[in-house]
TrEMBL record:
An example Gene Ontology biological process: cell wall organization
Higher taxonomy: Bacteria, Pseudomonadati, Pseudomonadota, Alphaproteobacteria, Hyphomicrobiales
Top-level lineage group: Bacteria
Classification via PANTHER family: L,D-TRANSPEPTIDASE YAFK-RELATED (PTHR36699:SF1), LD-TRANSPEPTIDASE (PTHR36699)
Cross-referenced PROSITE patterns: LD_TPASE
Keywords: Cell shape, Cell wall biogenesis/degradation, Peptidoglycan synthesis, Transferase
Pathway info: Cell wall biogenesis; peptidoglycan biosynthesis
Record-stated family: Belongs to the YkuD family.
Protein's name in the database: L,D-TPase catalytic domain-containing protein
SUPFAM superfamilies, alphabetized: L,D-transpeptidase catalytic domain-like
L,D-TPase catalytic domain location: 48-175
A GO molecular function held by the record: carboxypeptidase activity
């Protein structure tokens, strides 16, 4: 026992280990959500995919149905994220990551100090090659963020249970797609002059692969960027910064057409003066449904809130309320 008591616990970014594991990590998927899966022809053990949208402060769980395609299961409002729009580049910048990640069973953390969590796997191979630093970037509970995406405790408990069942059902790893905003022409136009726009254009191509095909895009790295659904002559590129080798397949015309059409529509909005200015983030944001609750019940009570684990599914082109919240010291 003395040896256990002397054990040093490591605190890094959004995660901390504890010595005791309670039943929170083994909670079943709620009955209502199981019924929704059944209604949508989904099995609890079927593969999942997660999509995150910073500006809208929403996290989506997608699940493969009997047709073999991914369908939307549920949308969760995010209680807190930190930083601003744009990728995470260095430890301590408070930026929540943007990009494509893959989460295996070993990255689920039942002992998180923030109720439950899973690790993104930041930095991925591309980010590591670019020299980006930081670790233990999470999706977790507690409604508090220092470079992570935070939900309520009940919200992350549902997501954790869904992910656990999919991984136990045979999915080796589930994909997490983290975007600065929904990739609409309006949002692209609004952020056209941002220095991250070229990076976001790459992310949009992955977004469009999924939205057109409803299949998980294959992710590759070369020429210092993401490349999607591409087979390369000679095999997968080993150096993310080296020039992309010749491809052995052609781009799906429907996907490429979707991307170019949206980018052209964004340029037209700019030309017509119809694009609104981008919001300036002091430090992250919060889903609009949580802001008034924060003022009324306080941070600790909000983290445990059980009545706001889902929000109505918004149309991608819907005008959403400003997601910015005042700066919060953690």
């Amino acid at each position: 026992m003395a040896g256990i008591g002397a054990l040093a616990l490591v605190l890094s970014a959004c995660v901390s280990s504890v010595l005791e594991v309670d039943s929170k990590a083994t909670q079943p998927i709620p009955t209502a959500l199981m019924a929704e899966m059944s209604r949508k022809s989904m099995s609890p053990s079927a593969p999942i995919l997660i999509r995150i949208f910073k500006q809208e402060s929403e996290l989506e769980i997608w699940k493969r149905d009997r047709s073999g395609q991914f369908a939307l299961l549920k949308v969760y409002p995010m209680c807190r994220w930190s930083g601003k729009l744009g990728p995470k580049k260095q430890d301590g910048d408070r930026q929540a990551p943007e990009g494509f990640y893959h989460v295996n069973a070993g990255m689920l953390n039942p002992n998180s100090q923030y109720y439950l969590s899973f690790n993104f796997g930041y930095p991925n191979r591309l980010e590591a090659a670019l020299g980006y630093t930081g670790d233990a970037l999470m999706v977790h509970g507690a409604c508090s963020s220092s470079g992570c995406y935070a939900l309520t405790d009940e919200g992350v408990a549902e997501i954790y249970a869904i992910a656990r069942e999919a991984l136990q059902g045979g999915q080796i790893a589930f994909q997490v797609q983290a975007f600065p905003f929904r990739m609409t022409p309006q949002n692209l136009a609004k952020n056209r002059n941002d220095p991250n726009f070229a990076f976001w254009t790459d992310l949009k191509r992955g977004n469009d692969v999924f939205e057109v095909s409803r299949q998980q895009p294959k992710v590759s790295y070369c020429s210092g960027r993401y490349v999607f659904d591409t087979e390369f002559q000679g095999g997968e590129p080993r150096d993310p910064l080296a020039a992309c080798p010749p491809s052995a397949n052609s781009a799906e015309p429907v996907v490429a057409g979707r991307t170019e059409t949206d980018l052209a529509a964004a340029e037209q909005l700019l030309a017509n003066g119809a694009a609104f200015s981008a919001h300036a983030y002091a430090d992250g944001g919060m889903h609009p449904t949580f802001r008034k609750l924060l003022e009324r019940v306080g941070k600790k009570a909000l983290a445990r809130r059980t009545s706001l684990t889902s929000v109505p599914i918004s149309r991608p082109d819907a005008a959403l309320a400003d997601p910015h919240s005042p700066q919060e010291q953690e």
